[in-house]
Amino acid sequence: MSTTRDTDVRTGEAAGGTTGQENDTAATDTAAARDAGELGAAGAQLSTAPRDTVVPGSFGGVRAPGAAGWLAWTGREIVGWARWFWRQLTSMRVALILLFLLSLGAIPGSLIPQTGQDETKVADFMGRHETLGPIYEKLGLFNVYSSAWFSAIYILLFISLIGCIVPRTWQFVGQLRGRPPGAPRRLNRLPAYTTWRTEAAPEAVREEALKLLKRRRFRADAAGDAVAAEKGYLREVGNLAFHIALIVMLIAFAWGQLFKYEGNKLIVEGDGFANTLTQYDDFKSGSLFSTDDLEPFSFVLDNFRGTYEPSGPNKGTPRTYESHVTYSEGSDGKEKQRTIKVNEPLDIAGTKVYLVSHGYAPVVTVRDGKGDVVYSQAVPLLPLDSNVTSTGAIKVMDGYRDAQGKKDQLGFRAFFLPAYGGANTAVVSQFPALLNPVLNLEAFHGDLGVDSGLPQSVYQLDKKNMKGFKDSKGKQLRENLKPGETMKLPNGAGSITFEKDIKEWAGFQVTEQPGSGWALAGALTAIFGLAASLFIQRRRVWVRATAGPDGVTVVEMAGLGRSESAKVPEELGDMAGILYDLAPGAPDTPDDTPETDADTGTSADTDAKSEPDPEPEAKTSTPEPPAVPAAEGAETK
Amino acid sequence: MTLAAATELAAATNENLANLSNTLIYSAMAVYTLAFFAYIAEWLFGSRSKVGRTAAALTADKGAKKAAAPAVTVKNAGGTAVLERPKVVTRAAPGSRDVPDGPGAHGGDEQGDLYGRIAVSLTVLAFLIAFGGVLTRALSVQRAPWGNMYEFNITFSTVAVGVYLALLAMKKNVRWMGLFLVTTVLLDLGLAVTVLYTASDQLVPALHSYWLYIHVSTAIFCGAVFYVGAVGTILYLFKDSYENKLTTGGKPGRFATSVMERLPASASLDKFSYRVNAAVFPLWTFTIIAGAIWAGDAWGRYWGWDPKETWSFITWVAYACYLHARATAGWKGRKAAYIALIAFACWLFNYYGVNIFVTGKHSYAGV
Ligand code: HEM
């Protein structure tokens, strides 16, 4: 079926439905081709999957002379090509290729650092690969999932998907409105078949068959000398629901990306936060976000608690992180208390507050030459390693006067070790909890550079215009302080005290991603749709009852599934058993050889295939249950 | 008793449980090894018999074969016809090969069959011991035993064997798979106890969630079932080549004949792996969605293209590809089978490769 013309396709569809969907496996031999023809419409449209038809290009046909001819030809050509392109795009084969490309295209993003996840890694990569870096950048490999080519793949896929769903839905609605296709002429050509002779009248048999099929919730319909029935439409419903759910999920995800925001805020115990743009340490948002979308709420971090594995090979691994907060919704809502843990964000009308990091904030007090307190606060320090060795800066900007009473600024470089190993160990913390806290300070004075207008990190000291204090040996003043200890600045320049109260801080991420509910709904629909689509068999059954030449009624039953399955013959055997009890077999005439057409063959050799299986029908009283030698031993699967 | 003493005691029990778990895993490996030899014996004894159903079906003279395609209708036996119920006759779809299934590894040989049964019994025993090993491990760490690669591996192989035994218990024709499965299970456990071994430890807070139970257990289960499907797919490819060779008049080697004749027909193998893959695909979809929900709770976004997430997605799309291929003209059979193997390779890479080669938020799973 590679180069069938447009017209052939239609007849092909009408006549040989089975060649399309059921039996794509090269129906080469002539018997098979004839079979297919004989099955007629019986197997057609057992699924609404598009057939793979390739329509050759150049549709303009003969070009009539003159401008009008040219116009007509061009028009035909354009429409033809557009249709061709559309058919290609919505064919199963192209959908398959696009799916394949999608998975292929997702790979580089998992192996190459991505800007969206870790910008420092990207910069690092750029630094290390001087030739490769810019090429990757051009190809969008640092931004795979928002790159033009990746978007192109999934957008094409989703256009293909829509182009696939819409006609399939119409087709399916048509099938639901219509009747199950009539019985094919030769039922014995179908994958599951049975027949017997009975004394019951043909009409009575058909009536019983109709009742039986309806009782089993087939859509059944008597037409002519046979009853036609079909069941399992939910399969198609599930399949369509699944594919539609994919679209819903994509739109929900895209929507979320456009309107989402994400901000970070570090809060020391005792401090608070209100959800306005200015309060954030850093803030990212989707391109359609506006500040009006910020949900009003506020909270205070009452207390942070972390516990750690005390011993063993994973000593120091965090066990619990919890932050106790008091929050209020709206601009002046009631105060409520909550614990925010790593997996348990605070959810305020869709805005979620996550606990993402933590560290220590030692409280220090700085006194000037006269002994007046000029600075006293908790200084959050940034962790450097998993044992929370931390670093930061203490900046005394105003209010300080030196020994001579002159205005000056003070700066301290701070290292903090929650668990100092002792005098002879490296200056790194040994454990994340406060076992033996030590604050290491280096003191400077001069111009902090905070008024220069350039943004400055609060964790780093800009020493360009600062001078270090010297100790008695003339070296840079630097001391390890224990809680409660004080470092004196030389020549009565003041002092700095490491207070006993060491606070902790918690980093929070506040995010809102609208459309999550839709994404979840889509996801659940997708699962159920998929399950229906994969577990439900769509199948057809025909029962024909006709008066034979000797006046005895011949009953024939046949079943056809979308794919060969053990269930179809099993179910057919089951129903045949019931119908047989209602229309019992008539005795044979001596010359009653198996009646089939000329090319009689052997029965699918039962003995070779079905091992002595316990048949499901064994319970019935008849001595020999209807044997159901399933297709190719499928029963034993 | 002081609090400190109580903690110490608890630690000691945990230590004992962890040691018990290790002993059980080693014992399970020993029993799996016995099962392995029993399966080998089954195959060896099976080779004495001369089964040649596939060859017979495919190399019988063409005239007879043509006639074999359509099937006969009723069989009425003499006077008892009235009491008999109608027989359903099935026939393969036009164009597909009508080949009977092989008899299994024992090849119809009685002694071989006996060894096969012994092998299955040993597999059951080993499974129970391994299950005990996983369970005691879980008790010793007081959480789900899926915190690191060692624990993943012992759970994974146990579940894979469980799936196999469940299929056997459901009277499915899967005994032929035993040798292949047990071999890989031994490799998997060997890798676990040597390279991947990690002493019991606690989980980082991000792993403290009931989603761990839901997401990780379904992920491991899906992997085990995908694995069983992949074994079927590989054997399908071999058997299909064998049948093709016979059809075109080729003469396969003696070893190939001996092995292939005992396996189910290629169509059956194909169908088996399709069923297995299709059956877990919705669960795999669920696994990813559950992971997304968990990520939403733990990290503030439900999807962020983290390497593990990305590879789950790639695996998912690859299996979707496979299912599509089965419904696309010209893609059934071998091509679809290759896609299924690629999809399983993606799963494997996600399982091992991402943990080892790529760093991401999931890497705390630890090697
Ligand atoms: C976003 C990408 C897609 C995914 C993840 C996807 C996934 C799936 C899955 C898992 C199935 C298996 C269900 C079954 O075998 O019954 C399926 C079936 C199907 N898909 Fe898709 N699909 C996608 C796009 C498409 C497109 C673009 C088309 C249209 C050309 C399409 C048409 C079909 C059809 C017709 C079936 C049913 C085949 C049958 O009856 O067996 N799908 N799809």
TrEMBL record, chain B:
Pfam families registered for this protein in UniProt: Cytochrom_C_asm
InterPro entries: Cyt_c_assembly, Cyt_c_biogenesis_CcsA, Cyt_c_biogenesis_CcsA/CcmC
Top-rank taxon: Bacteria
Main localization of the protein described in the UniProt heading: membrane
The keyword Transmembrane is assigned to this record: yes
UniProt keyword annotations, A-Z: Cytochrome c-type biogenesis, Membrane, Transmembrane, Transmembrane helix
Cytochrome c assembly protein domain location: 146-358
Membrane-traversing stretches: 24-45, 118-140, 152-170, 177-198, 210-238, 276-295, 310-329, 336-354
Topology of the protein relative to the lipid bilayer: Multi-pass membrane protein
Location(s) in or outside the cell: Membrane
PANTHER family: CYTOCHROME B_B6 PROTEIN-RELATED, HEME EXPORTER PROTEIN C
Descriptive protein name: C-type cytochrome biogenesis protein CcsB
Organism encoding this protein: Streptomyces phaeochromogenes
Recorded name of the encoding gene: ccsB
